[in-house]
């Protein structure tokens, strides 16, 4: 993504051109800072060696350095004395499936000089991080579409190990109606999404297990007749798409539905 291109149109705005150019520079500088943070995140060691990372980019939480005593005390807390199976259920309930995040274009809004925010509990305790770092990805359903732009930019921010932990996806499919009302609606999915989802070389979600596709139906453009009802034609189109996806993704559980607006 080239951030400065977002404001290239400012050249044609006369008196407002300077404002647009300054906005472009601000966005571009912010994007460079964001890119530097992403590069740092992928390094095994942060600047000055304050943070150690594993080869896959996750934090290295082995007991080293000056805080071994604190780490041992945290490890002996009541929560961490529970069996791992019970502890993992608690963690999964706490960090998975309770929020909806919407991917959008990323903008850097400047340095934060206000009150410091509390650290996430997942990152605050080394042992909790070691056990829960990937749970927000493996225990959640990620929704996107139609199109691929927002989710593509968001995936670029993730570590490979985080993307590989995603198993459940819901996609909002495209839709259109034929010009003649005596034919069933034709349902379609953005070709870019289809190619990436079905790519065996570089799939968007390498370990995808559950895929739900939702199509939106607008009654405004549909005229029913004696040959087709909306319910019948909808089910016919959904079944065809479901069969196609299942053929391409034999190891994925696929469900397809539609909703009216």
Bin the strand percentage: 5-15%
Give the helix tally. Answer: 11
Average pLDDT value?
67
Biggest pleated sheet:
5 strands, mixed
Q: What is the H/E string?
A: HHHHHHHEHHEEHEHE
Low-confidence stretches: 1-20, 220-228
Q: Tally the structural domains.
A: 3
User: How many strand elements?
Assistant: 5
Secondary-structure class: alpha/beta
Query: Could you say which overall geometry the principal axes of the C-alpha atoms support?
Result: globular
Rg from alpha-carbon coordinates? 24 Å
Distance between the termini: 33 Å
Percent helix range:
25-40%
Structural notes for this entry:
By secondary structure, the chain is an alpha/beta fold. The protein starts with 16 loop residues before the first helix and ends with a strand. The chain contains eleven helices and five strands. Strands 1, 2, 3, 4 and 5 form a five-stranded mixed beta sheet that branches. It folds into three domains: 41 residues; 79 residues, no CATH class; 122 residues, no CATH class. 40% of the residues lie in helices and 12% in strands. The N terminus is likely disordered. Strand 4, helix 11 and strand 5 form a beta-alpha-beta unit.
Offer a quick outline of the entry:
Helix content is 40%, strand content 12%. It is α/β, with parallel strands linked by helices.
